User: What shape does this take?
Amino acid sequence: MSHLTNPLATVGQLYQRDTLPEELQTSILYYTARLTQAAGILLRLPQDITAQANVLLFRYFLVDDIMAREFSDISAATLYLTAKISSSPRSLRSITNVYAYLLSPSSPLNTGPVANNPDTYYLSEASYIIFRNRLLNIEGQVLNALGFNTHVTLPYPLAITYLQTLGVFAGDSKEKGSKFAKRTIEYLNTALLSPQMLYLTHQPASLATAAIYLAAKEEGAKMPEVEWWEVFDCEREELGFLVVALGSFRALVEREEKRWEGRGMVTRRDVRDVMAKSNGNGQEEEETRMGRLLDEKIAA
Amino acid sequence: MYSKLKSRWADNEGDVALDAQRKREKEDRKRAKAEKHRQADEAAAAAAAQAAAAVEERKQQEQSHQELASRPSKRRKLSPGPAANRQDIAKETVPAKLLRFPGGQWKKCRSVEDYEKLNDIEEGAYGWVSRAKDTTTGKVVALKRLKMDNATDGVPVTGLREIQTLMYCSHPNIVALQEVVVGEDVSKIENIFLVLDFLEHDLKTLLEDMNEPFLTSEIKTLLLQLTSGVSYLHTNWILHRDLKSSNLLLNNRGVLKIADFGMARYFGDPPPKMTQLVVTLWYRAPELLLGAEKYGTAVDMWSIGCIFGELLTREPLLQGKNEVDELSKIFELCGIPTEVSWPGFKRLPNARSLRLPKNPISQGAVIRAKFPLLTTAGSALLVSMLELNPAKRPNAQEFLEHAFFKEDPKPKSTAMFPTFPSKAGQEKRRKRVTPNAPVRGKVPELKATDFSGIFSGREDEEKGGGFSLKLI
Assistant: This one.
C-alpha cells in the first residue's frame, strides 16, 4: 500500500512552527525548494529524485528548528541523500560544485542581467572539504529527524494512469492528450515548491486529481459532467483546496520576488536582518548579531 | 488570504442565497464536534490514568494513531470549506464512498539509551548485532548497529537501503524493523541502530550444531516459510540478493524469518542494469558469475535451491574458493550449459572466455545421485531450482505450489517444531565461516579458464556402495 500513500504531517507538526512569522517561513520554504529543483536540473537528476528530495526537505523542516541550519545546506544534503539511495547517485563533489554555482553572484537564479564570472563559484579544495563535512553532518540530522523513513510516493505515475482512465490519449486526441499530460505534470512540479507543503498534507491521489483538474481547465479539455474526481478518491473539498493553492501560486511567487528584490536565494542572515528590522529593537539586533557571529564560527 | 481565495473557489451563484442556511449547518456541526471532542478527551484521560507515566505517552500516541486510521478524513474537515456546497449539489445522490489511506507519520528517532544491552550476538558483514531489552516495555529485541566504514560518503547506502526495504515490508517470514534509534550524542549521527525482532537462532549455526539433520517434514516447513517470504518480496519488486543460511533466522516456535537486507534493492520490469557483485559466493547464481548485467528474481530462487541442498546435508552445497572455482563446482553438479538448454548464455560477458567440454552430461543426474533419499518430486524440485538457465527456474509462487509439498510426509506445523538451545540468547557464538557478501566496488573479471578438464577423472571415481538406484 505504501506505493500509493505518503506519511502525512500531523496537526501538531503543522502548528509547531510558530518561531518565525508566517511570511518568512513562506519565503524560506519556497526559495529552498526552488534551489533544490534548480540543483536537480543542473545535476541532470531524474525529476522523481529531485521531487523526493523536496518532499524530504519539507518533512525535515517540520521536525527540526527551521533556523538551526543554513537553508541551502539542508537542500544540498537532502538532494545528496535522495540521489544516494536512488539508482542515480551523484558525487559529493558534483553536489558541492552545483550549489557553489547556484549560490554565487553568477547564479542564474538571480533575476536581472548576470555576468558569468567563474571566479565567483570556484570551490577550492579546502572549502570543498568544509562544505562536504557540513553536508555529511546534516545528512545525519535529516535522517534522524525523519526517523530514517526516506520513502516518498510521488503522484506522477498516478496522474498518468488517471489521464489514461479518462481516455485523454485515446483515438485521434493523442497530441492534445500529451499536451494535457505535460501541463498536469507541470502542475505537480509546481506543487512541490508550494510553501503550503501540499505533498505533506495531501495524498498523491488528490494531488494528481487537482493537477488534472487545473490542466483540463487550461487546455479546455472536455471532462465528464459528473463529479469525476470522486472516482479517484478525492473529495470535492480537498480538490477545491488544492486547486486554490496551486492557482494562487503565481501570485505568491511574484510577491516573493518583489520582497527579496530578485535574489536567487534567501539565507539565514537575510531572515535575521528582516526580523531585526521589524522588531526595531536594539537589544534584539545585538542578539542576532552575536548569533550570526557564532554561526559563522561554527561554519568555518 | 485563505478566506479570500476560498470564496474564489466557491463561485457558485446559489451559494450567496444559501449562505445563511450554511452558516446554521456549520454551527450545528461545530457543536456536535465539540461534544465529540469532549467525549474523546474524557476517554483518553480515563485510559491514561491507568497506565504508568512512561507507557502512558506511548499509549496516547498509539491511540491518536488509531483514531486517525479509523477516521482519517477527520483532520481535513477542520478547514471550513465548500463542504456545504457539496451537500447542495449532491442532495439527491448518495454520498460516494471514497477510499482513505492512512499513511502514517514521521518523527525523530529515539535514543539507543532507551534499550538495555543484554549480550552480543555476532558481527556480520554490515554491522554488529546484540540482544537488548526495551527499558519501557521490557521487550527483547535485536539491535543491529550499522557500520560506518565509508565515512567520506556519509551514512552507507547499503544501510539506508536495508532500512528502506525493511520499513516497507510487513510479512510473518521477514524480520520486522520496529524502529531506528541513534546514539545519545545527536550533534553527529554516527551510531545508528536498527531495532529488529529477536529470534533465537540463525539457520547456519543451528545446522552446524545439530546432531541429526532436519526431518523432511521440517525441511518442507522451513522452505515454505522461506519461499513465502521471498514471494512477498518479489511481488513487491524487491530482490533480496543475499539469501543464505546465516541470514535466515529461526525462533523456538519454528518460525523462520529472512534477515539482512543490506544487498536488497527494488527492481523493475524490464530489469534495470544492476551490479553482479551480489550474493555470497556459495549461493550465487551462474548468470551472476557469468557477468549478466540484467538479472531478476531467479537469482534469489537459485539461492533457495542452494539452501534446500544445505538443509538436506547440513553442509553448504557449493563451496567454491573463488568465482572460477564456484562456477566449476556448479557445472560439476548441474551439468554444462549448451545453446539448447540455455539459449544466449555464450553471449554473457564472462562466458566468452570459457572453454567447455564437448559432450556434456545430462543435467540433474548428479543432483539426484547426491540426494538419493529425496523423493522423485523432491529431486525434480531441487533440479529445477538449480537450473543453469534462469528462465527455467520456477518462480516463488510455482515453488510454493510444487507437488513436493503436497506429498507425504506433510510439512510439519510450526508449533510442533523441536526447540534447540539458543546460542544467541546465552553464549558467545562461533565465528562464522561463510564468506561475506561481496563488497561494492570493481567487478572482478573472470580470466580465460579451461573447464574441459572438470569431468576428465570421472571414470576413475568410486561409485560408492552400489546404491545408485536413484541414478537415471
Summary: Chain A has a mean pLDDT of 88. The longest helix of chain A spans residues 22-42. Chain A touches chain B through 52 residues (CB under 8 Å).
